[in-house]
Amino acid sequence: MKQFYTVVLDRITEFQGLLESEPYEVGWANEAIFFVRIHAMEKGAVLDGKVQISADGIQWVDEGTQIIGMSTVRSYCVKVTHFGGWLRFVLTGPVAKQCTVTTYLVLKG
Amino acid sequence: MSLSRESLVSQGFEPLPKIIFSDDFDEGYNGWITLMPNFRQDTFAYYDSFKGWTAWGPPMLSSATFPYAGTHGSMHGTYSLKLATRPISAPAEKRPVAGSMGMAIKRLTHRTNGLLKCEMWYSFTAEQSIPGIGEEAIRAFGFFWDVSDDENRTFYGARYLNSANGKMQQHWQLFKVDPTSTLPWGFEGESAPGEPNGSKVTLSRGIDTQWLGNRNPDGTSDGYFDIPGSGQKMCYNETPDKINWHYFSFTVDLDKREYVELCSVNRKFDLRGVGATSVPRYPRTEWLLNPVLFIETDSNRRVFLYVDSIVNSTT
Q1: What are the pLDDT digits (tens) for B178-226?
Q2: Which of A95, A96, B60, B240 is most buried by a 10 A CB count?
Q3: ipTM metric
């Protein structure tokens, strides 16, 4: 039977401008989904998100998968495969507008 | 997946007669999850007493891969359970700030009292993100049980105090409240839902020692008992990417509510006669048995605890 694990990367977290998730090791997994749940965002705020991979959990490279234009209080997701040993998710938004999010990394392999 | 007694013995374990669990992290997470605060009952928000406790580093299955060495793997395969901190720390005399610890918990109940033993093979290191071996970046790591029966709740724990405010300490401590301390234990206010009779639950002295109590610049606190003569230098090797696996065993007596023995690599400490700190049982925790692993950083650098395998056993 396959392994399965959901990790909450950032939990009901308030931020402005940039939120980089902590490095997470995923070498055992074959597939991943990032979920971004937006709990609240200031009027006019728009978030973009991107997946990054790494050889060592320190130096990060854009994997190419993105979510562009998150502007509604709801959940968004993106799927990733073939990612090596590490994954993280980077959210960017307006510097002056506060957003509250929970981000998940859902792993299977 | 649990290993047979024969397999455990061949891997260097010396379990008591009844094995409660034996976790090899090449077989998955085995039920270890990050330690989370409690929700209020009226909304999905945390009690004020727990704010800031929502960002402890979650456990992960690690291949122990490093920038210049590649993959170290684990002692018995590829994967270990890794606890990571965030790169943030408060001074040693302050309580831990959000993210400065990595925490992992497994939740069980137990069927009897008697002796209880934890064994593990583990390693630890600092993130190889900046030059320097980083040994002084690791404040402390350890293991504890949160244990209840019908009457009492007790935290039995052992912590290796490695460094405090950048100064090496390198000795062992037990979870045990200093009875002479009159300082407030920690956050006041509700910490959990009460019983149906409306009683409130607040944090008791001796509970959640890993982040409560009153800490000092040298890493001592009124929540920790420094084991006499327990100075021990660990095998930290020469760079952060050379990790050596260490043996740890810790035995307590749930009938007498006292410590029995701590073994670390070549050292053995007789702890008989050292009582643990018990408080009246909290609501809905009858016969709870929660083993917990933790590591804390001493600087703004991530530090990691790797557990290859862990066994809990009882008489």
Answers
A1: 999 999 998 777 778 887 766 778 788 999 999 999 999 999 999 999 9
A2: B60
A3: 0.97
To test the contact with chain B by mutation, choose from A6, A11, A37, A54 the residue with the greatest count of B C-beta atoms within 10 A, namely A11
Partner A contacted by B28 (CB < 8 A): yes
Tell me if chain A has a CB within 8 Å of the CB of B39.
no
pLDDT number for residue B191: 79
Residue B34 contacts A, CB cutoff 8 Å:
yes
Distances (CA, A) of B98 to B55, B85, B87, B219: 5, 9, 10, 18
Domains of chain A: 4-108 (2.60.120.380)
**CB contact (8 A) between residue B127 and residue A58:** yes
List Cβ neighbours of A74 (8 Å cut-off, separation of 6 or more): A37, A38
Q: Tokens for B175, please give them.
A: 């979870």
**Residue B82 sits at the chain A interface (C-beta within 8 Å):** yes
